[in-house]
Write a sequence for this structure.
């Protein structure tokens, strides 16, 4: 994000982080200012954004909501990819009161996938179903996990313990995460396994309007079974257990061990696979299926992971639609609202296309 924005004379970029090492690891060719600040401490967010015109929130989820609130009360527009657990709409009135534009969940998934939901909702006369499969995986598969975590393992594991909500029959229903597994084939990749995770987030507000909505995470076949075994054996339980007189949290131990096993080292190549299937009725009453597909790969020339590319470039496009006043509505706006605006959607797709993130789109009549 910093690399892309700082390459444009339209932006003067400041990066704030609590880690001196992380700041020193920034590409030395970047024209950015840095601030070493622990943003979890009171007052430091306000200090970091003072004098700035726009904020990008790319923090751990537990810090995201409060950071966005701080940005709003400071009167700063914000694009957030912290994916915090709280309901962003709880800050909608505050944002409108301060005349602030807030784009939330503006990554790849959630993010671009939501943009396509908004696009489909407007394009179809009646959107009946929305199904999204998404996964970021290493190119090289190593036993036993065949997986690398692009962010903290504890955040990944939390996805497997939180009940997964989806929409069936127009109603929100809940199943355990990792439920409803299925196999899908992807060209140049082979077979992947999809399973339920709690990824619909703000899209759940459309239950009742859309009959069926689900998001599934993609992994190499066999990965899910190993995670289920860990979960059912208690290794993902946050509640401490007594071990030789000491209270130890199983999930903290598991996360610590998996950090090394799942570490994504510099130069490790990855790919991002996405398949979005929207089905609905057109103006003539015909049932149409529209499929958006992405297979994005590690950028060897720049040493940039696919997950960083797809997430970061979508976020950057969000920054640009605010900076160029393409999106002018104050308040909290998840990507599905932006996706309903064809001008904004076309701009974002164009920005991704320029950076080599290219979706293929097919559209055909269907009976189901």
């Amino acid at each position: 994000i910093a690399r892309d924005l700082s390459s444009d004379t339209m932006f003067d970029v400041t990066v704030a982080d609590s880690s001196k090492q992380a700041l020193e690891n920034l590409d030395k060719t970047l024209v950015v200012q840095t601030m070493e600040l622990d943003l979890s401490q009171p007052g430091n967010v306000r200090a970091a954004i003072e004098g700035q015109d726009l904020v990008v929130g790319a923090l751990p989820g537990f810090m995201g909501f409060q950071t966005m609130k701080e940005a709003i009360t400071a009167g700063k527009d914000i694009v957030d990819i912290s994916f915090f657990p709280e309901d962003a709409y709880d800050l909608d009135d505050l944002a409108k009161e301060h005349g602030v534009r807030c784009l939330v969940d503006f990554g790849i998934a959630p993010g671009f996938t939501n943009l396509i939901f908004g696009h489909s909702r407007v394009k179809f006369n009646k959107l009946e179903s929305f199904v999204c499969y998404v996964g970021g995986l290493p190119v090289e598969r190593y036993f036993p996990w065949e997986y690398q975590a692009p962010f903290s393992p504890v955040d990944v594991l939390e996805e497997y313990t939180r009940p997964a909500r989806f929409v069936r029959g127009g109603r929100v229903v809940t199943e355990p995460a990792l439920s409803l597994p299925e196999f899908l084939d992807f060209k140049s990749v082979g077979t992947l396994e999809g399973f339920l995770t709690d990824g619909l987030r703000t899209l759940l507000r459309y239950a009742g309007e859309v009959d069926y909505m689900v998001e599934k995470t993609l992994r190499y076949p066999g990965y899910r079974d190993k995670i289920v075994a860990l979960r059912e054996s208690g290794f993902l339980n946050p509640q401490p257990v007594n071990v030789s007189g000491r209270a130890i949290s199983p999930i903290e131990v598991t996360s610590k061990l998996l950090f090394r096993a799942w570490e994504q080292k510099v130069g490790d190549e990855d790919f991002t696979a996405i398949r979005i299937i929207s089905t609905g009725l057109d103006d003539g009453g015909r049932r149409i299926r529209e499929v958006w597909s992405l297979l994005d790969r590690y950028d060897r020339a720049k040493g940039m992971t696919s997950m960083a590319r797809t997430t970061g470039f979508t976020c950057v496009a969000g920054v640009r639609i605010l900076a160029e006043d393409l999106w002018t509505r104050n308040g909290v706006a998840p990507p599905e609202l932006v996706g309903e605006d064809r001008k904004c959607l076309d701009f974002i797709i164009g920005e991704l296309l320029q950076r080599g993130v290219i979706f293929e789109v097919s559209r055909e009549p269907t009976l189901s």
Q: What stands out?
A: The chain has two domains: 1-108+308-355, 123-304. The first strand starts at residue 13 and ends at 17. The first helix runs from residue 2 to 6.
